[in-house]
Design brief:
Shape: flat
Number of strands: 9
Distance between the termini: 61 Å
Structural class: mainly alpha
Helix content: 40-55%
Strand content: 5-15%
Number of helices: 12
Order of helices and strands: EHHEHHEEEEEEEHHHHHHHH
Length: about 475
């Protein structure tokens, strides 16, 4: 692992058909399609696989599981990843700064122009038939394959009740992440989630585009002596931070520290007022200098945090404009398909009227043209349905971005949104489209979010209206 960091172990690939057959049916059952991701599973099926696989490891490979030295009781175990673990890995993990990890797009998974080289998804106008064998495409920067697309992946997390507009669904279902081969590019973004109930009236919920990958959990224990052992090992690795953590513990502010990052976070929670109050009562020059240095470090931290938060909000606001542009462009294509249907119907009507008075040669030409227009109508109607679905998928992604933005201070959101508008000042066609997306849509909707009225954001007010 990296010095001063915590790690967790997540599967490089989605669980394959061959792995499923080996664990659940025996190695002799491995057959055709073994390298495809295993799908058609319920949440309970996935956990049954984990249960059986763990029993095998306990019997045949216990020494390969994380554990305390010479301790037969506590050890790490296989499970589904949490949503946070999954998304951290999908966005690139420790290889990227936090501002990049919070970006809403696929840039941390692959270069935008080569997303198809990393992710199996349905490009516009070309629906993919099924998933690819695991590892067929290039891995992301975390060296993990198929985190975007191919098959959606189950997580350990359940639905959450709606709280402050942030969480969705009803407690008790389960979440899948990453999108699948059936989704568009917008549907496989790392921040997207699907929420599924565990059961319907027909039984457990399964999906032909839903699979899973495994996480190897760290050692878990509730025994205090083991916690002391971990703290001792930590203090030997980083005695400087451990000493500061001990001071906080003595002050009653923390009872246990698990990593250097936890220590830094807890140190950052020290109140400026408290430090200044302590400083006012200290006369020793050395102690005063140390506390003044701490105050300066705290000021730097607060400034950096504010700059980072502003950058994060600005990135989200910028993403809104691009999503709105995409929705409006897609709705323009939908409208063209709709108009194409109307035009074809009008041509058919005229040609059918002309048939009664036409010569034999002319009747043949008119009949062929009517057939061609009917074929065009079928094709255009199918395209219309596909584009309607794409618009709704993009709008759901847009709502997700707005929900993310709603967690920040409204004044900060409004200020950063205005700054983003200033980035689009050129007069080329693309920039003018960005300006319109902001002026007609995102400015209004961000103001709704700042006013805590996300319910006022409507699809019909984002997409271009369809002609009647």
């Amino acid at each position: 692992g990296l010095e001063g960091s915590q790690i967790y172990l997540i599967g490089k690939y989605e669980v394959s058909v061959g792995q499923w057959q080996a664990v659940m049916e025996g190695c002799s059952a491995i057959g055709e399609g073994a390298s495809l991701p295993k799908t058609g599973l319920s949440y309970f099926d996935a956990n049954r696989f984990i249960h059986d696989y763990m029993l095998h490891l306990l019997a045949e490979g216990r020494e390969h599981l994380p554990s305390f030295l010479n301790d037969p009781l506590y050890l790490g175990y296989l499970r589904l990843p949490t949503e946070a673990e999954w998304e951290y890995a999908a966005r690139g993990g420790h290889k990227f700064e936090q501002a990049v990890l919070n970006d809403s797009g696929l840039t941390v998974l692959a270069e935008p122009e080569s997303a198809a080289g990393t992710a199996a998804f349905s490009a516009e106008g070309a629906e993919r038939i099924g998933p690819l064998p695991i590892g067929s495409l290039k891995p992301g920067p975390s060296s993990l394959h198929d985190m975007a697309g191919n098959v959606a992946e189950m997580t350990l997390d359940s639905f959450k009740m709606t709280v402050g507009g942030r969480f969705h669904g009803s407690e008790g279902g389960f979440l899948v992440k990453g999108g699948s081969y059936k989704d568009s590019l917008a549907g496989i973004q790392p921040g997207r989630r699907r929420e599924l109930p565990l059961f319907t009236k027909n039984g457990p919920v399964v999906g032909d585009d839903i699979g899973f990958r495994l996480v190897l959990s760290g050692v878990n224990t509730t025994v205090s002596s083991k916690n002391e052992q971990l703290k001792k090992e930590f203090s030997e690795l980083r005695p400087d931070l451990a000493a500061e953590a001990s001071e906080l513990a003595e002050a009653g502010q923390v009872t246990a520290v698990q990593s250097p990052e936890d220590t830094r976070r807890l140190l950052a929670m020290e109140s400026r007022d408290r430090i200044e109050k302590v400083l006012s009562g200290i006369t020793d020059p050395g102690q005063r200098k140390a506390l003044e240095s701490l105050l300066n470090e705290l000021s730097t931290y607060e400034q950096q945090k504010a700059e980072y938060t502003a950058s994060e909000v600005r990135s989200l606001c910028r993403s809104l404009i691009y999503v709105v542009y995409s929705i409006r462009y897609t709705s323009l294509q939908r409208n063209r398909a709709y108009k194409g249907v109307l035009d074809a119907q009008a041509i058919i009507e005229e040609d059918e009227k002309a048939l009664a008075k036409a010569s034999a040669a002319e009747r043949s030409r008119l009949t062929e043209n009517i057939a061609a227009q009917k074929e065009a109508i079928v094709r255009l109607k199918a395209l219309h349905v596909e584009l309607e679905g794409s618009i709704r998928t993009q709008f759901n992604y847009y709502l997700g971005l707005l929900q993310d933005i709603s967690q920040f201070d409204p004044n900060l959101v409004l200020a950063q949104n205005s700054l983003v508008r200033q980035e689009f000042t050129a007069d080329d066609r693309h920039t003018v489209s960005m300006q319109l997306a902001y002026d007609k849509v995102t400015k209004r909707d961000v103001e709704y979010v700042a006013a805590r009225r996300l319910d006022l954001v409507k699809l019909e007010n984002v997409a271009l209206p369809q002609p009647r």
